[in-house]
């Protein structure tokens, strides 16, 4: 990639960085991407997929497989801590996971495909909404319009702090953990703080639940039986001194390597809540949100990524354990041979979702070259 081209893409990335929008509210970002893609004349341009999703389709000269390259549109509800001239202009929101960089790399492919269509098959450049909540990919796949562009192969990347900028890493098999948020509502009966015995307080139940939930998953080795329960929020009654509480909430994130272990962890957590509430005379309600199924790299798709990297002279670090964080990209793997690779964003880079995280523009050419080459591997004549 020439310095001039990298400068153009850096300008694009920084423009996207200024306008982060949270999951499900990516209207301006989607409009920005749509207008950018129109300049490069896709054969089909779909909008409104699963919410604000956008897909640009480039048809090949001959029949062949459909290959999807996917990125994410959404930012995070986290204030950005930065003095960069391109820092977020949306108060309380930031592109602090690198989705601005991911979008830039996929958008760069549009210019190349506009100049040179694939020899066969077709390429779908997918800009997916709502990855951070796990709702985007399922909504895109469920959208009736998706059936017309459903891929045979699907690829994506995620930047990874801790790896040198531009280093490629890959996991064959489980790639990202399953996770879900568990919200537990406890209901008893209030009373005067001078007569707590005349009410039913959730305090005792919460005192048992907090350590009990954590004990269900210690989060040791990332093997098949890995389970982790992270307490994220708790609330007991109202902020007052005159009322013994009658209700409370506990929020926790459940995390496992595979969906089978997740089902068992849900059963264990649900039984724990039911047992404690029964002993304490409390009602309870359990709901789940931010649901991510496990993401597993298909063997053939992962091999194609390794081959593509080898052809362009990039070393691949193979991991034998998945990332602990979750991804909804696995939804595309239900109907396609799918794989995600990791792209180093710096050994000293702040962690994803940190307020001072910023995607390194120097990594852009590497991601583009890997995507370009894997398309060549599959769609060359």
Per-chain topology:
Elements: H1 3-17, H2 27-38, E1 44-49, E2 53-59, E3 62-72, H3 99-115, E4 120-128, H4 136-142, E5 153-160, E6 168-171, E7 173-176, E8 178-187, E9 191-192, H5 203-215, E10 227-236, E11 243-244, E12 247-256, H6 259-280, E13 283-292, E14 295-297, H7 299-311, E15 316-319, E16 337-344, H8 364-379
Parallel strand pairs: 3-4, 3-5, 5-16, 6-15
Antiparallel strand pairs: 1-2, 2-4, 6-16, 7-14, 8-12, 8-13, 9-11, 10-12
Summarize this structure as a short list of keywords or feature phrases.
Aminopeptidase, single chain, about 375 residues, 2 domains, four-stranded antiparallel beta sheet
What does this structure look like?
With 381 residues, the chain is an alpha/beta fold. It has 2 domains: 3-176 and 294-379, 3-Layer(aba) Sandwich (Aminopeptidase), CATH 3.40.630; 178-292, Alpha-Beta Plaits. Helices cover 30% and strands 28% of the residues. It has 8 helices and 16 strands. The protein has helices at 3-17, 27-38, 99-115, 136-142, 203-215, 259-280, 299-311, 364-379, and strands spanning 44-49, 53-59, 62-72, 120-128, 153-160, 168-171, 173-176, 178-187, 191-192, 227-236, 243-244, 247-256, 283-292, 295-297, 316-319, 337-344. Strands 1-2-4-3-5-16-6-15 form an 8-stranded mixed beta sheet, with helices on both faces. Strands 10-12-8-13 form a 4-stranded antiparallel beta sheet, with helices on one face. Strand 1 (44-49) and strand 2 form a beta hairpin. Helix 7 packs across helix 8 (364-379). The longest helix has 22 residues, at 259-280.
